[in-house]
Structures are given as structure tokens and as C-alpha cells.
Write a structure and sequence with these properties.
It is built from 14 helices and 8 strands. The protein is an alpha+beta fold. The radius of gyration is 20 Å and the shape is elongated.
Length: 330
């Protein structure tokens, strides 16, 4: 059994114990669940980081989806479909029962967002929300330290949760100040409007402009962002190979290319389409272009570990350079 699986078992057992204990409304944990997730990541049990080298792509995020208030309400509507399902420890199949993180994972998967399996990892997904006053429907609420329970906020101080053995998925009051609030839906301006921002006209004279425009429209990613990444990664060279082994116009690492279904990274059409899908996922995961670019360069694990752009000089330079290229193209 992997370290993640063992950790997951432990935190689910802790969840049963702590959920049986009385809740103290208004209390705040002194240690964030993010600290535990960072410790797990440092031990090699968490999400793997990227290479941290410019011109390469690290681990692949697997999230996506549209972000707006309507997106959050759609998540809530999906969660409501599972009200009344039995709580089953370790459950991920609604026909048999769900546990808290199984419910959250299942709901978001139906909106194109693949979350980690266990609650302490889900408490690191997306971006932090500072307080319940800033929480929106669809946000993930995490409880205790280390985190061992999660629910989906529905507004009005209530959430949908799979609470514990003997109970069913239900709507409940938010029982205490969450130890973490995470927004995994992207901001509406970050992704949903990107397809309309760039056109082949704005890329006049740019190599492979048609590929950037086509892939951007297909995946909802600004074509100027794709062109800017290609400019920084390879200088528009489809035969580029980095010392780390990243290949092609978009400098995809072989493992990343395989995960994206790209058979030949040296084929510009395949490379651009794969990079567009990857950037869509990263924008969905982090909700901001700069964080998505940092994850493209250093890996999503590094962005999550530092809860922002990692303090790597190469990555910070990379993000600034790509944004500057995009600004010139826009």
C-alpha cells in the first residue's frame, strides 16, 4: 500500500473520531491543514513537483471547468443529487455509499475537475479563500488539523457533507470556522473569456498562428497565451529539444506528452493541441494566468507547495517573460 493510501486511511479514521466529538462553533485551528499537506509533500507522499527548469513542463494537473457564480451554483446542484446517500467509509460509488472526500471528488469530477482522493489533499486544491465572509457556493470547506473532513459550501452558512457512519449525505450548518476554504473553480474572467480574446488577426505574422487560434477556440484558451508560451519555450522552433528532454514547439516532457495523448511532440499541431489542453487544466486548477504559467514551468506541485509562484528565479523570470510576450501580441 502506498504512503498516500496509508495516510488516507489514517485521516479517515481520525475523521470518524473527531466528527463524533462536539464541535466548538467559532473556533479556529491554530495549525492549517495546508501545513500537514506540505509535510506530506516534503516526505514524498504528496503531489510531485515539477522540474523547476525553464523550458520544461512538470507534473500535469488534471483539472478544468468553467468558473463563475453560476459555475458554483452548478456544483451545488450536482451535490444535491446525492442527498440521502448513505455514508460509507472509503466510499466513492453513490450506489454503495460515499465518504466526505469521495462525495467532493465525485461532484467536481462531473464538472471536469479531478481532485485528489483524500480530504487533506483536497484542502490544498485550487486557491485559498481568506474567510467565510468571502466564501462562495461551490467552495470546498475543510475542517480540523490535520484536515480530516470536507464539505461543499452552498451559501447561507450551510454546506453539503457526507458526515459519518450511520448518517446520510445531508445539508448542514457550517459547524465551526473551517481550517481551510479552497476555491477550485476558476474566476470567470480567467478562462471562460479567453477563447474570445485572441484571433488569428491579432497573431498576424506569428508562426503557427492558425494552430494557436484553432487550439485556443477548441479548448477555451487565449491563442495569444499559447503563442507567447511557444515563443518563450522554443522560439517557435518545432524541433527544439532541451537538456532536460522537453521536446518540440511547446517543450512537452515525454511523460507529460503521454498523459496528454500527444504521440509526437515534434508535430506542431499535436504539440499545440496538447499544450492548450494542459493550460486549460492549469487555468482551471489555479484560476490565474500567472499561476498557470508557473505550473506549466515548475509543475503544479510546486505552485501548491508554495501556495503561489514558487521562489525559483527561473520560474519567476519565465512567468514575466511569457506575460510580456502575450502583452505584445494582444
Amino acid at each position: 500500500m502506498s504512503v498516500d493510501a496509508v495516510a488516507g486511511r489514517i485521516q479517515e479514521i481520525e475523521s470518524q473520531i473527531q466528527l463524533l466529538a462536539p464541535k466548538r462553533v467559532g473556533t479556529t485551528s491554530t495549525t492549517s491543514g495546508a501545513d500537514f499537506a506540505r509535510a506530506m509533500a516534503a516526505s514524498g507522499a504528496g503531489t510531485a513537483g515539477g522540474t523547476g527548469a525553464a523550458g520544461t513542463v512538470g507534473d500535469v494537473a488534471a483539472t478544468g471547468g468553467s468558473g463563475s457564480s453560476s459555475g458554483g451554483e452548478a456544483v451545488v446542484d450536482t451535490a444535491r443529487k446525492y442527498l440521502g446517500i448513505d455514508y460509507v467509509w472509503g466510499g466513492t460509488d453513490p450506489k454503495r455509499g460515499l465518504d466526505c472526500s469521495g462525495l467532493v471528488q465525485l461532484v467536481y469530477k462531473q464538472h471536469g475537475i479531478d481532485l485528489p482522493r483524500v480530504s487533506y489533499q483536497q484542502a490544498k486544491a485550487g486557491r485559498p479563500v481568506s474567510s467565510m465572509a468571502e466564501a462562495r457556493p461551490g467552495d470546498i470547506l475543510a475542517f480540523n488539523s490535520p484536515v480530516n473532513h470536507v464539505g461543499i459550501y452552498i451559501g447561507g452558512g450551510k454546506m453539503i457533507e457526507a458526515p459519518r457512519t450511520g448518517l446520510k449525505v445531508r445539508v448542514a450548518d457550517v459547524p465551526e470556522t473551517p481550517s481551510a476554504i479552497r476555491r477550485v473553480l476558476p474566476e470567470s474572467a480567467s478562462v471562460s473569456s479567453t477563447a474570445a480574446r485572441g484571433t488569428s488577426g491579432s497573431l498576424a505574422g506569428v508562426p503557427y498562428a492558425k494552430l494557436f487560434t484553432t487550439a485556443g477556440a477548441k479548448h477555451g484558451v487565449d491563442p495569444t497565451l499559447l503563442a507567447a508560451v511557444a515563443k518563450q519555450e522554443s522560439g517557435y522552433r518545432p524541433d527544439a529539444v532541451s537538456p532536460a528532454g522537453a521536446r518540440g514547439l511547446m517543450q512537452l516532457m515525454p511523460s507529460t506528452a503521454r498523459g496528454l495523448g500527444v504521440a509526437n511532440s515534434m508535430d506542431p499541431a499535436q504539440a499545440v493541441d496538447g499544450a492548450a489542453r494542459l493550460l486549460k487544466d492549469l487555468l482551471g486548477d489555479f484560476g490565474r494566468v500567472d499561476l498557470a504559467l508557473a505550473a506549466y514551468n515548475a509543475g503544479p506541485g510546486a505552485v501548491r507547495r508554495y501556495d503561489g509562484i514558487p521562489p525559483y528565479a527561473e520560474t519567476q523570470k519565465y512567468v514575466r517573460a511569457v506575460l510580456a510576450h502575450q502583452e505584445r501580441l494582444s
